[in-house]
Amino acid sequence: VALHGWPPCRCPSEGTMERSGSSWRRAVVAAALAVTVRLVAVTAAESIDVDAPPSCDLGSALAPVRGELRQRDLGLPAEKRAWEFALDAGCSYRLYERPQIADCLSGKWVVLIGASQTNIWTVQLANTLAHNALITKRDGFSIDGVFTLLIDVVIEDGKVVYKNIVQDRRKKGERRVGAHTKERDSTLLQDVFSQVWRQSVKYSTKAVRITNFFAEYWDNVDMALHAVESASGWARAPVTMAVTIGLWYVNSLHCAESSQWCATRPAYGRLSMDELLDQYREDMLDAMARLEPFCSSSGRARVLGCAVASIDHCQFMQGDIWHRTYDELRTVMSERATHLFRYIDLWTLTMQIPEDCLGGHQSPMSALWTWQVLLGGICQKTPAAKGALAAFHGPLCRAEQVNAECDDPHKKGFSYSWECALSELCTLEAVPRPAGMRSAHVSAGTVSVDFAAAAGAVRRRTWLDDYRDTCAGGVGLFTELLLTLLLAGAAAAILYWLRRSGAEGWSFQGYKRMSSGSLQRRDNADKQADSTGHLWGSGSPNSRTASWGPDQKGSFSRIQLVSASAVGGTGGVWYDMESEQQVTDARIMVSGHRATGQEALGPKAKPAASPGDGELGAAPAPPASEKFAFGLARCVASLHVVAGHLYARQAVADIYLFGWGFTWVPWFFMLSGFILFSAEARRPRSESVLSYVSRRLVSIYPLYAVSLLAAFVIAKTQGVAPSFPVLLLQVWLAQAWVPLITERTLQMQCWFISCLVVYWVAFRPLFGCVSRLKSLSGVVSCMIVLYLLPWLAVSLPAIAGDAEWYEEHTFGRLDSPLDFVVVFLKFHPLCYVHVFILGLLLARFRELLEPFAKHVAVANVMQVLAPLGYLGLLLVFCLPALRPPGAKLSARLSVLLPLQSAVLLGLAGLPGAELPFVAAKAAQLNFLEGYSYAVYVMQFICYHLWPAAQAGPIFFAFLAAVAVVAVHAVQRPAEALWQRHRACAWLTPVALTGLLGVLSALPEPTRNTDLPAFRELEDLVVDVRLSLLAEGEDSGGRQGAALINPSMLFRDNGAEAVFAARRHRRTSERSPGFYDGRSVTVVEEIWHSEVVLGTLVLDDVAWSSWLRGGTPVEVRDLHRWSGLRTVTSSRWVHLCVRERWIPENNTLVRLVVTGPEDAKVFQRFPDVIGAPGISVAFNSYPPLGRYGCGQDQAVSQMYLAEGVDPRYPRNKSYGIRLDCGHQDRAEKNWIPFQHEGRLHFVYSVLPHVVAEARSDGRCGNRFYSSFAPLVKLQAEHPGLALRGSAQAVRVDDPDATPRLPKAHYLALLHIVDPKTHRYAHFAYRFKAEAPFDILQVSSQLPLMAAEPDEGGPSFAFASGLALRGQQIVVTYAAGDRDPRALVMPLQRLDAMFATDVAPGQAAGSLAAAASFGGELRPASF
């Protein structure tokens, strides 16, 4: 009857039978006739569906939801195909169309409790029963989960007879923050919900009442139940209720209290994940205590019962919070559910529905399936529609239709896309199964995951890894203390020996030890003084002054060192104004001997008679003009710089002050100019530029050379040594001159020395220009110009609206002119020459102030100048509100220079005047400055040797001890040697060049316990390392980068292989910054990423030999894919940056990825011999600039580039975004394959979604299916994530694949546990025609795992799949560092798809081999 369009036969009700027996008999006869007619019609039209499964009992406590939803081909277009839900319970859902729903719900009250999800259910049901019953833009409400507090509608005879929608008054201002605190909800919602029973709503047995009570949190439930129980007007109506609550608890995690999106209950945003889940459980149990009586046999819902539904599932819901929230409710309801208090596992149900979510909400199709399950529990006595297949009708049923039609819902008058989706009714039609079509059955088998086997490998290690691991925990603290005590003991011993022998000096050849603390120069040594000052100073730890007198020949050849206090001094250390040096026992050397006092102090110093033995004179107190109290200031500045570097590495405490250490390097440039000018003005010297520069290098180069050699040895052992050309520039102090290499050097912090060399070369001309300034006004004017000039680099971008423009640059990258400009501004000598000149001007300013030194006002200003300068700097360093715009550049170049100038001038004092009080006190610690340079140079060497990643106070004590030892064991002896043999000044860099050249040519040390290059798992099944080498690596230029995630393509019938890989390394940097109007710590996690491409002509003999343990096949022709361009022809650089706010520690984490990732190479068109072009699919953050992405759009996207020539990757090719996914969701792991000449991608593994892609990035048809074993795995372990891998290849070789002897596609998938970051990989097969259903999943692939260099669980990641004849090659990376391939015959892989053995066990020895010799252990969940 139904097939021919006749109305279905309805049996009369019991009341009708009682009223008329004859009527009943006539009805029976009519029914029998109708059944006969239908059977005849069915026989004529189709065969009887003898294998149709029985209907499910959805009135049970736990509704069956697990199975497969399949699209069935009825000979209609794809959009009109019907769906069949095959359940592993062996039953099928009864389907309800509008007439059955109206019949079932007549006279009943449907209560829904929830937020936006139940809003959608409410609108869907109401519009099904009455045309356009609820339209958001017409009825003035929004499905936002915040402001729509009540929807109450009564429908009778297909018309709305009552409607009441209540909106929160906060809606006008979109004031979400605090909208649903417990206090506000308890008052607001109780008042709103009371309208349900206060307003007169007439009850009718023909009417259906649908009421949606707002509830973001479980404590709202009690008020809703109270309102239902109080509605006396509808007391006769049977009540059914559905509750779903949870998403707003998820939204609260890490929600800033001021967030206008999620902070509806700010108190929950302050909770950690564990605390939030405890709160969820506590609130839920309180609500259950109220729900259970309501939904019991004696409660208000005693007839129809209730349903509690879990949160729904969307593909992006991979975080731990989602799974644990789902688990909490599932655990509670599994113990409490009854036939009247039913549990609907909406998470598992929607997981199987091949639909995308609409901003986290169900599509109309998904909502209709949900209603089928809910109605199945409510309408058990109502006949369902005829038909086992479901067809959906409506222009906006599917998510992809909504995304296409409602891409901008505001233009259509809606706030959100899911509101727009409900504006056009989507209906379900029950369709009978056509003749010959058997009912769908759930795929058999299980998928077993063994993460223990997948991660059963060991990590690559170096001596430093072993050292730090050995020193972990309490042993680490002991080692730290031991190292510090040993170095401190060595330093103390050196200083003690110096005091014993060096108070009288410490002897080198050329001078001898004398009594009474004196040093006597050999009479035959009469060379000119040649001390070697530099900006750091090299004062002795023994603060002493020199007393001097004439020798027997009348020449000033002897000097005596006595304590400053002995001659009435202030305790300060003298400065030799000729050479910018302190006159101390350890610094006044000439060619291996101590300089005389006359040589040290200059010709203006006059001898005094000696009160002693007539041979040695007493020293008068030096004039104040010859004493600078810079020692303590230099040392503190050096330590702050070190703290700043460690802060950027996240190796010290998160203290805002530490982030400003970089600002002191320009101060040292100013200090150098100041001291050089002062010395030259006091005693001009006539010497060549070469002599002048070499004389200054004496005091800095020896320690620099030793540190460079030590840093190279450490880098070499770690595999991160730079190339020899870079080292060559460093040896000759030219690293800052060439921006191309500045950020790729060893001892990166020593770039300033390279700048100093330039300033020393230019000093004499600059000195002459500044000396010609005769007036204070002229000097001050020049200083003001230099203070303001660099502001152009800050103010112009700030006016343009981007003061932080330099943040587009990522350290170590030079991909664009912006990168070059940033590196130039940060490090090039030309960008700090104004700071050096400021030092000269400041010294000239000090000279010109000498006539005013005795003025009271000037003296008072000098007293407070240094304290005020330090105070201003301290305020900037400690108060985020004072952070200047573009601080990382502006603070280097100009902003802080006035304050730093005040510090410098205040500590120097004025000629002819006593030192200011603060300077005089600081001068007592001038002995510290001899070590400031060593502290700076040795900082990273000490950090690499430190047994822990964190550096606390003990580390700084260790660093100080190393500095003392380095000064007295390296720098001072080297200075003495250089003074005696001037040729050393040039022989040292020559020798260092040769030594580093030899060491660079040596191979990197072998890592112990690394994965083997070749491992035979069984006969003809091997795991090999791919010998890939990209440009720059053979010269050591990869800076610690690894080639990972390789992809292969065989062309020309296997005669040529195309390779792609990702060159990857990670760095991290921490700095102070702002976020959401507050001061925060910014941590930048930088992924340096680029794709390399190349080809290799394959020799069958060499290939076979390699796979049997012979010589590896090397691929040495991989080049960076530099030709990749955007659609606007721009280079693929400056990608969007993803930010994550962590309120617990006030930290903003930025993920900066520098280039494309994970390229997959494939042949778009049939293989053509000699055709160079291939297609490359890759994922990347959009190349729109650091801030170019809109809100929530800084996520990875999939791109396609075609016509790429792997032999010449510098040729231009264009990456086009594939518009098959979502711009606000990370898109990656798509599986490309070609079908009938058209490009397709497996967009999702579960559900299995295949999308057709076009060359312009648009997407065509989509095909959907699911696979029960994967659904079962996901349902039982919701924390796991199932994703695609590599490419898909077509296989049509029945002889090699007896377990699937027909054409099919072979692909890879991986399962990851986000909690442990472990991976398990599988091969799977899917149909070679639409809708591309999954047919089989293999046992676990035996990939060899490795621990990443930065630590963490061992893992492998499969990235490529290629077929060469009957040989399958799975390419992968172990531990993000080791490119490898698993190679086996196609027949062996086919055996892993055994149908009579659990997939996890089918591989046998292969799976065991994955543990790298370990025992195969069952999965444990």
In brief, what are we looking at here?
By secondary structure, the chain is of the alpha+beta class. It is built from 42 helices and 45 strands.
Number of helices: 42
* Rg for CA atoms: 40 Å
* Helix content, binned percent: 25-40%
Unreliable parts: 1-50, 457-461, 503-625, 1034-1038, 1167-1171, 1396-1421
- Choose one word for the global shape: globular
| Whole-number mean pLDDT | 79
Structural class by SSE content? alpha+beta
| Beta-strand proportion | 15-25%
Care to count the β-strands?
45
Strand order of the largest sheet: 5-4-6-3-7-8-9
What's the N-to-C terminus distance?
Answer: 53 Å
Largest sheet: 7 strands, mixed
Write the layout of secondary structure elements.
Blueprint: H1 14-19, H2 21-45, E1 67-72, E2 82-87, H3 98-105, E3 109-114, H4 116-129, H5 136-139, E4 148-156, E5 159-167, H6 182-193, H7 195-198, E6 207-214, H8 221-230, E7 239-243, H9 247-252, H10 266-269, H11 273-294, E8 306-309, H12 320-336, E9 341-344, H13 346-352, H14 364-378, E10 389-393, H15 399-405, H16 417-421, E11 427-431, H17 451-454, H18 463-470, H19 474-502, E12 511-513, E13 518-521, E14 544-549, E15 558-563, E16 575-576, E17 581-582, E18 589-590, E19 593-594, H20 597-601, H21 631-648, H22 664-682, H23 689-697, H24 701-718, H25 724-731, H26 751-761, H27 763-771, H28 776-788, H29 792-799, H30 817-827, H31 833-848, H32 856-878, H33 887-893, H34 897-908, H35 917-923, H36 932-945, H37 953-980, H38 984-1001, E20 1014-1018, E21 1021-1025, E22 1027-1030, E23 1042-1051, E24 1056-1075, E25 1078-1097, H39 1100-1106, E26 1114-1120, E27 1124-1125, E28 1138-1142, E29 1147-1153, E30 1157-1162, E31 1174-1180, E32 1197-1204, E33 1213-1214, E34 1216-1217, E35 1231-1235, E36 1238-1244, E37 1248-1253, E38 1259-1265, H40 1268-1276, E39 1281-1291, E40 1304-1313, ...
Parallel strand pairs: 3-6, 3-7, 7-8, 8-9, 22-26, 25-29, 27-33
Antiparallel strand pairs: 1-2, 4-5, 4-6, 10-11, 12-13, 13-15, 14-15, 16-17, 18-19, 20-21, 21-45, 23-24, 24-25, 25-26, 28-29, 30-31, 31-32, 32-34, 35-36, 36-37, 37-38, 39-40, 40-41, 41-42, 43-44, 44-45
Helix pairs in contact: 4-14, 11-12, 19-37, 21-36, 22-31, 22-34, 24-36, 24-38, 25-38, 27-31, 28-31, 32-34, 36-37
